[in-house]
Each structure stands twice: as C-alpha cells, then as structure tokens.
Amino acid sequence: MKRRACFVERYPISGALSATNYGRSQKGTHMAGSDLKNRVLDAWTMVEHLSEGDFNPRDTANHKLTLNAQDFYGLFGEAMRKKGSGKKGGIVLFLNTFPFERVIRMLHEKFQLEDTDEDISYGTKFSLSLSFDRELNLLPDNTFLTESAYFLEVNSILDEDKFQQYEEEQKETIEKLFHAEEEDRQEEDEHRDTHTSKATPRKFFNRAMHKFITHYNLQGGQCYYRAVKNLDSDVTNLHSFFVDDLQRAKETSTKNLDAYLYQQVHNDRVDLDANQKSPNFNPLPFYDILQPKYYQLGRFPSHPEYALSLMQQVAVNLSTHCGDEQIRSVNGPPGTGKTTLLKDIFAELIVQQSYEIALLQGKNFDVPGSNGPDGIGELPDSIADKGIVVASSNNGAVQNIVNELPLTKEVDHSFQEALIKADYFTEIANSDAKEEWVQGEESKKHKSFVVKPTDSEDPNKFWGLFSLEGGRKANVEKITTDIDRIVKYFDEHVPNDGVYAEFLDAYKKQEQERDKRQSAVDTLNQVSVLESQLNSHKTDFTREYQEREANLKQLPAQVERTIRQIQSRIGLLQAQKQQIHQSRVENADREATLNQQIDALKLQKPGVLQLSKKREYDQKMAGYSTALQDVIGKKQELKEAEVKQDRLIAQKQAAGQQAQTQLKQEQADFEAWKYEQLYNMQQEEQQLAQRKQENAEFSYPRLNLNENYDKLEISNPWFDEEYRIQQSKLFILALRVRKQFLYDNRKSLSKATWIWGDQQKFMNENPDLIVKAWHWINLAIPVISTTFASSSRMFKNLPPETIGRLFVDEAGQALPQASVGAIMRSRNVMVVGDPAQIKPVLTLDSKVLGLLGRHYFEGLRNPDDLAETYISENSSTQTLIDAIGKYGFYKDKEKTDWIGIPLWVHRRCQYPMFDISNDVSYNGNMVQGNKGDGAAKWFDIGGSANNKYVSEQGQLLHYLIKKMAQKNHDILDPNKKDVTYVISPFKNVADRLKKELNSPDLKFTRRDHGKVTNIGTVHTFQGKEASIVFLVLGADEKSKSAANWAMGSSNSNIMNVAATRAKKQFYVIGDLKLYRGLGSDVIKKTLEAIDQFNQRIQKSNTNADQKEDFTAQYEEGEPGVVDGKALLDALEKEFSSALPNAPQNTEAGTSNKPQEQRQQQRNVLPVTQNQQRQPQQDLRPVRNYQRQPQQNTRPAQNYWGNHRGQSRQNAYPTQNRQQRPQYQQSQRNSRPMPQIIKRRVDLNVPYEEKDEAKKLGARWDYKRKTWYVRPGSDLNEFRRWLK
Q1: Which of 296, 729, 910, 1245 could form an SS bridge with 934, CB 3.0 to 4.6 Å?
Q2: 1049: Cβ–Cβ under 8 A, 6 or more apart, which residues?
Q3: Which of 702, 703, 710, 920 is nearest to 277 (CA)?
Q4: 0.85 cut: is pTM over it?
C-alpha cells in the first residue's frame, strides 16, 4: 500500500514540537470547515499509523529466524512445504521486533507527559517486514516499515514527512540488494555452457539474505518468519485497515459523513424524557412518535405475548416511519433489548422491501439480449436502500447477531412451522458446501457442490438463509457460494407468482387495522389534548391568580397613599386660592375708593377760566385714572388666578375619585377574570368528561405519560397480541415474496456472484456493475454482518452511499475512525451501543492522545474540546453520533450531557446487580423488567500486590469456586455453558487468575480455540452473561492510582459491565479499605446497593435460609461485607489437602501449593515472647461508611496475626521471621489453649465495660444493637460476656 500524505506533511512537526512546546500550525490561523475535516482525518490517520505492525511472538505460526543460518532458501522452502503453501503462498519476515511500550515511554519522556495507570496492552511491533513469493522472489510492493519503529529510532513522533522519504529509500535499498543477486545469477547462467546445469537460486538467495542481515544489523532473537498459504489474505497485521478510507473521505462529501466529521448538532433537539418527576419531563414528543400510523407492519416472529418496551418502540418508529434523519443513535444499557429492537427493525425493512417488489409492474430486471455480466439488472432505489449491513468493531457482536437471527429456537413455536414451510433456502442455511467442477455429458464441465450439514442432529437448526457473516475472504466466499446454490436450487423450484397478490392483500389488511387504531387514537388524543390543556390552564390559572391576588392586596395601600398625596395638594391649592380671594377683596376695595375719589373730584371740577385749578384738577384726575386702570387690570388677573386654582383643585379631587374608582374596577376585573377562568375550566372539564365517557369502550392499551414511570416504560400502547401475530405472519409472507422475486431474477443473481468474484476486472471495465452486484447479493442475504476491519476490504470498490442501511452494533466500543468508511458508503446509519459500558480498546494512553490532539487542533477554536471529541479515550463512534442526533436524552437537568435515543427496561439481572448498574451509570433511569432477588457480596481481603495481583484474593476465589461447585456441579462441568465468569479490571490479574484457577484440583479455566472464555478483563465479556460473576479488583496501597483508574468516580464503566454480566449472583473480591479510601462514588453506590439488598434479604429470610449461605457467619457487621481473610482461613482448613499438585507460582520464593504458601506466610511472627499485636485500625463500618480507630491488644499468636489489608508476610519485621517457632512454643507454655470460634458469637457487654471489650477485639453491630466477636477470635478472652 502506498501511503498518502498526511496533514502533518502540510503542517510539519519536526521544528514545531519540542519538549516544552506542543506545536503550532505554521499558518497559525483559524481554519475553514474543510480544514477541520482534514485535521480530524489526519489525526485519526496518525493514530492508525501508530497501530500498524502488530506482531504476536507467541503465535506458533511464527518461527524465530536464526540469523547465522547457512541455508535460508531451504529453511523457507521446507516451511512452505509444511504449511501447504500454494501458488499464492509464500514467506513473510518480521524483523527487529520490539515492545511498543518503548515508543510510549519515549513520548512521555520527550514531551514531559504525566504517567498513567491505564491498563493498556501495548503489545509487540515489528520494524520491518519482507514478503517473498513461492519461488522466494522478493515482492517489493509488500515491503513494509513501521512508523513507530522509525519514531523510536529518531526519538520523535510527528515527523511523518521525513518518514515517507526514509521509507522510500529503504525500499529501494532492499530491492537492490535482492535484485542484484538475481542479476548475478542470470549473468552466470548466460556464461554457462548449454550442457552445464544452470546456477541454483539457493546460492544467490542465501547470499542476498546474508547481505541484507549485515546491512541492517538485524538483532538475533527479534526476527521471525512465517509461511502462509495466501499472501493476499493471510497477512493482515501490516497496514491499518482504515487508512485508505480515511484518505478517501477527504475527497468525499455525503450528508452522513459530513454530519459525522463536522459534528453538525441539531438546533431543535427533542428530549425523550418520559419521567414526570424529571425536571426535563417532555411528554409531547411521545404522543406524536407513538401514533399508530408510525408503527411497523412487520415484526420478527418472536413470542407475540411480549411487546417492545416504550423506548424500544420509539426507536423502531423513528427508524422506520416517523423520523426523517439519515443518521441516528440508540443508547442501550445492559440487558435492555438492543438485539430485540434490531430484529423488529430488520423485519419491517423486509416487509417494506417486499411491498415495493409486489407493486412493481414488471418483476424481471434482467437486461434482455445479454448473457454477459453487463446483463445484470439494476434494483430500484426503493428496494436497494433497504438493504441491511451490520458492522461492529467487536467480532463477537458481529457473529452473535447473524447467528441468532436465523435460529429456529429464537422463533416462537406458533410460527416455526409456517417459517420452515416458507423455505427461505432452509436446506442451504443448514449446510456448508464446497464448489468443484465436474465432468458432465459431452465432456463439458459444470459447477457442482459437495454439501455437508452443519448440524446433523437438527436439520432445521436455522429456519432460513436470513443472515451471514461477511468481511473476511472465507466468509465472502461462503456468501457467494450460497447464492450460487440458490441459483442452482431454482433449477428445480416451482414458482408461485400468486404470492405477490397474496402479500398485497395481507399488507393492506394490516394497514387497514393500523389505520383503524389511528382513527381511534385520534379520538382518544382529543382526551389527552383536553387533559393537557386543562392541566395547563389550571397551572396557568393558579400562577396568575396568585400573582393578581398579591398585586390586588397591595393596591388599596397604594390608592390610600395616592389620595393622601392628592388631599395634601388640594389643601395647598385651597390656601393659595384663599390668598388670591383676599387679594381680590382688597383690590375691589381699592377700586371703590378710587371711584369715590374720582366722583368727588368731578364735583370740584373748576371752570374754564380757572386755569391754575384746571391744571391741578387734570393732574389729580390723571393719577386717579391710572391707579384705577391698574386696579382693574389686577382684578382680572386675580379672577383668572382664582379660576385656575378652582380648576386645579377640581382636577386633584377628580384624581382622588379616579384612584378609588380604579381600585374598585381592579377588584371587579379580578372577580370577573376569576369567574371567566373558572367557568372556562368547568366547561373544559365537562367536555373532557364527555369525551372520556364516549371513549370508555376503547379496549386497546393506551399511552398515558402521567402513569407510574416504571409501568410506563414497560408498556407499549395501542396494539395487542393479535396485531403482533399478524405482524409476524406478514414478515413470513414477505420472505416468500422475496424468494419469488429472486427466482424471477435468477440470471441477475448468478451474474452478481460472477462480478463480485472478479471485482478488479470490472473496476477497470465497468465499476457500476459492482454496485448492481452488491445490491443483488444483499437482497439474497437480507442481513450481512462484518467487522469494520474487514468491511474496508469487502466494500473497497463500493462508491459512497451504496449500502442501504448500516447498523453499527456495540458502537460505544468502536474507535471513531473505524466507522468512517462504512458511514461514507451508507445512505442511512443507525448506531446502537452504550458509552457507559466498555470504551474502545486503545493502543495509546490518554496522555499521548492528548499530545496528538493538541497538535492537530492547534489554531482552531476550542482545541481542547475538539481533541476531547475526536481523539480521546472517551471518543467512539457512539459518542460522535450521539452528539449529532436530533432525538435523544439529556442526562442532567442543566442539559449539557446529551445521548442518543435511550432504552430503559432492563431484563437480564436480578437485584441488586440491577441497582448497582442503575445507580453508578444511569442516574436511576433504568426500569427493572426482571423482578427477582439474586445475591451480591463484597469479600473484603487485601494483601501485597505484584503488578496489581493479590495472591490472597486469587486463593480465596479458588476456594469459593470449589465450595460453590459442591452444590452446583455445572460450574466445573466442561460440557455445560459457562455458569461463572471471573472478571478483573487488570490484564495481569486476569492472566494470573487463569493460572490459579487452572490447577488440577479445580480446572475451572475454559478455552475455546485456545482462548480463555470464562476469565478475563471486562472487554472479554461485553455482550455476554452468566449466572455467577466474580469481580476481582486486585491492587494495594502502592498501586492505589491504578485502583482509582479502575474504580474512581470518573470511571463507572468497569463496575457497570461487571455487575451486569451477572444474572443471579455478583461477588466483589477486593481490599475494602483501599477502595473505600478512594472516595469514589462508584464504590460508595455499589456498597450501598449491596448493603440495602442484604438488609432486606436478612429481614425476609428465615434462619434456615441464612444457614444455606456459608459466608453469612463471616460478615463484618455491615450487611453483605464478608471478612475475606477469616473466610479464606476457614475454607483453607476445609480443603486442607485439596491442592497437592498446584501449578508453579510465578512469584519468586513462594511455594507451589497455596496451602504451603500461606503456612509459610504464617511462620513470620516477631521473636519477643510477650510482644503483642501492633495497634490495628478498626475497619468495621459505621452508618456513614467511615472507619473508627481501635486499639487491639490481643496477643500476637491470635488467629490472624497480621494487619487487615496487608499480607501476613509483610505484617511483621523481616529480621524476626525465622524465630516464630520459639515464640509460639513459649506462648503455648504460658497460656491456655485458644478456643478459636468459627462463627460469630454475640456478647452481653455492660456499658461501663465496652471499652475493655473493644480493646480485646469485640465489635459493635449498629443494626442489631449488640456487641459480638467475629470468627477466628479466641473465645477465652470474652467468656465473662457470653450471653
């Protein structure tokens, strides 16, 4: 594969990234959307390049290469002979292998990254790989150098442009080394005499190998070779499976791909919160989505009594008929029926495809007059866009779903006969076949099949050829072989054209029944709408009434203040008016006086000849006149002023009256509004009562969002069992239609396998034929599954938007880059998973991912958020599609944590496993659909850990399984399905337990094809279930940070998955002090669930019931918490001779036998004769889970002789360990024989003696309100308090 230029070539890192500077884009500017897309794809490409070159040195197919061998030619030839390598076979060399952890460590040191305790298996990489064909000719195109080895060599990482140059140079050098030897051999052949034998290639190949080894200074013990049968398909650990699609995506734009890469978030998200107690309660969308018209017409033929749960039905409706989104996600917690949901969606798509087929005027699509591949017909989009592909990163998930779908036992017995009779190629589904060409008549060869049943005991194990696994070459060949068998089957098949009309008739009847329900629901919805409106009106009325009433109560005081202000103003105006009036009176008096003076003066008017008197008279008259005019003018002003004052007084008086009137009006308006509202609500209530009476006869289950949340989630409205029966019958009839349509187009079907088997030829001639062929293949096999790793090869020649419907299972485990190719090629995408369970398996730790993220998103807005979204330990296909889904669920009231369509009804685990999962991961939103009590306990036992493995925990588990197997023989029966799983957060702990539990006396460890099936990390058990599960936590104080990684508040996934694998019993083995000391919500909630469950069980169980539990007597006072050390000692005594041939313990200095090992650990007490046990912390719980200190002064030879939470070996000074026998002997001589109790003993301790009893080791049971001593104590010390 030729590498494509990565983003880092355009933004080189070599000079931009140092130990103190995490890099900056040379452009350093905010980039456009297309550059964001490129950055995302380039970041993912780099992660993939770093994952290339995986190598397993333990694989027996890989052989160490002896570098000083003389005859490589013979060595490789013999290896190919033993392998049976054919024409396409050859030899592959894996050279200079190294642990990938060296690269991680280099990055941490160079860029000063913090260490992490993440439990990541880094594995081994090779530096260089060479491939040789069957004749041992070098295949230059297959030469591969790993980037991780180059980065390790140059002590850097992101300098990919230099690596490109380096790789090309090395390929050229290697080719010259081997090519030069070939030229020498040919030249020697030319100079030889024709009668002389030609030069042997052995000599020249061996010489080339020795030159190559010398030139590259290959390291002994780090080089391997492998013989393969097919160089094209058998070597899959070289290149990343996803890089080609990531590069292709840069040049591709589809609606789904762009939404995925650009994270195009909906502005109109619909919160599917049906819990009326939730602050985000949102009932209205459910009334819309769950209308009968959106229900499916078809259904998988499972038991008709059991309907989908509410949220399952929501998801089906949105996926088939209601929503118009082309990409969506479903979040399904453990045991919530994700597979059941997919079955019904698949069934509806099959029905709708058959409906489109039945409506076609012409049923044959073969191109007339063409017998070649170009004569293949083209399926209409309405049929092709409903083709189904299931993809996953989890190979187990891929196999589980395609294996389960066609199982006859998964079909309800009432439908099995009809389904087998429909014969969707049942015989082919229940057999394997191998193609071969046989000689026929007239010496013509024809294709034949050698058929072998897959299950001789049950010829109808599978009801039909409904689903097959694709991806790998062998799987694809089986698909095409089975389709060729279908074509041959049609040679003797009797067609049934009438099935089209029969189907349409049944389809229309089912549709009419659905429409009938819709009509009834429309009427019922009026009741719901009226109820909603009435409740809304009542709420609004109450709120507005309170507001109005409060305002009205304040109004009289406001009016009174206003009136007082007005009255004060009126008083001032009246005083001013009085002053004006007084001025008018005075002015009138002045006017009268002046008039009198004028009249008197007129009487004294002199004659004409009295000139001097005449002048005097005129002067006086002029003075009186002027004064009179002034008085008259003032008279007018005062009159107007008085009128103005009267007007102002009148206005203020009117304002006061208006304020009083307004108060009365407000009171009247309030009463009128109240009456009107009450009257309207009364009318609505009467109308609602009338509608309810009218619909009293409606017999179908109804949707009531005000119902109890648990009942609501389990319910499914509108349809009954009879309707579900008809749905399943329609699905079976749809299969018959499909079969007839394939018969009508058998020529196109035959051409499809021809084209698919020779794609390279048709890619050059007519690539459209490959698309046509795929649609026929996917029509014949309705459901085809593949891993993402295999899909990139299987679909490499399909263009964008070719696959109809892509369903991604366990999407929470899928790396975001893994699904790019599948999403790019699909028209409609639905992912199903749960980010709260197992995260994707990473080959890089979170700090290295953060380093990459900081580089690739430097210069963009919110680079840290982008890095967290696209390239972090939390990133997955599920999280990216959750974020862009229109329909989903807010997990928090602040509406910041959004997930896809949630499924809430859990049907796997009993209590308290359900409670643990629900509390630690789902905020109590899950609903229990499997009522019943199981069992759960915490076995409290610690010790010194070796790489997180605590041997005491392994030994306790060993004995517990052995003890439980005495009653339940299926636990150790190799012929029975796994009854018990053992899970650990840490790989080393799981590996050590595989050895511990595989001892001859137990043989618990089981394998399938070499892989252990019942012991492992949580990743081993995703999607699986067993009756009993043990979670072994491991770790000690020295590895506390690792414990926090596994069980800290920020990581509930491991506990969630572990608890939900257990259907009936769940047991945690771990150091309670250590894990409780983390302050983790996960541990706190787990213990609370165990505590509350065991309290309830203790109250309800009889004494006889409690005696059945052999661990109950070792409980520490906190219900469900068992003293693991005391229990271990008791079980060890019970099985004292149980392990005579235990396997070697890998820890240096320890015994082969756990019995002997623990005995050695006991013989380490201090030498001082009278020395007492060191003060010990009391680990008994109190109500708030806080431990209270206690001083224990019992003699050192007491039953345990060590601190809880420590190994016995580490409890005492090393220098005194060998002197224990002398100490024991002296103690035995000075003290009576201890009376060690095996069961808890209650004490009657007076209050004034409680401190003394406590010092001796007595415990207070706060629930039973009594003092007691636990098993393993010396009863002699407590005799005076015995009841």
Answers
A1: 910
A2: 1079, 1080, 1081, 1082
A3: 710
A4: no
